[in-house]
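@channel sequence for tomorrow's demo:
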Amino acid sequence: MSAPHHPKDSGTPTPERQAALLTLLADDDAAISRGIREQLVAGGTATIEWLQGHRLHPDPATRRQVRGILDQFASARADAAFLSYIHSHGENLDLEEATWMFVRTRFPDAPVPGYIAQLDEWAARLREQMPGVSNGEEMLGRINSLLFGELGFRGNEEGFYEPGNGYLNVVMDRRLGIPISLSVVYLFVCRRLSLPVTGIGMPGHFLCRYQTPREEHYIDAYNGGALLPRAECLKRLKQGAVEYDEGAVLPISPRRILQRTIANLHLIHKQRRDRADAERLQRYLVALAR
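structure tokens (generated this afternoon):
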């Protein structure tokens, strides 16, 4: 049985028409449901406006379909906004702003202001501890105690290749991540404290670096914020399977941090044969490479 064909509406459907569309949207026949969904998606802005009023529809199947369509619209808007941002900003883009825009391409309803407020609150707690702290090692120790001790952030060893490790909202919710995503949390907290901490794109294991004229510490956020001397990082490079390059222990730009985050995710989705996500992420990588 094929889905009924209707000409595309020029505006908001009548109440009677809305009721009919919502009933067919939850039809047990997948072809009918899919046809109505495609018709509603093609309706554009008018569709969004009246579907918003049915987000809490009493029928679970209808409610699920309505939210799916609204999420599709929201993701499309977020996708366009993120690509526009990438194209209009250079190497030193605002990494935090770009990161949250990227999150919304996958989680359009993510409560981003709440996550920002959480980062603000963590930084405020640390700021209260900083008066009287005389050196960077002690400052970093306070940060490590909060993030990896009290808050429980840690490396996701059991699920290292889970896509959620690449989205900051998921990382903050679960307190689990991979080297680059945990380092990004570290960077965003340190940014609020005006500390000289940058991202280091070591092959295979992203790090942060704290550097002043008197001190230099490399920070392994995946391993509880362990502080490493430069010599140890160079030793790891020499022992690695990649070509030795001392430039790998130098800071990389915010744009390249974002690019590496998305490249990790792209590889995961490609290996999982998640075609839609892999293609979406590929578009971002092409834009970031310019």
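heads up for whoever presents: The first strand starts at residue 154 and ends at 155.
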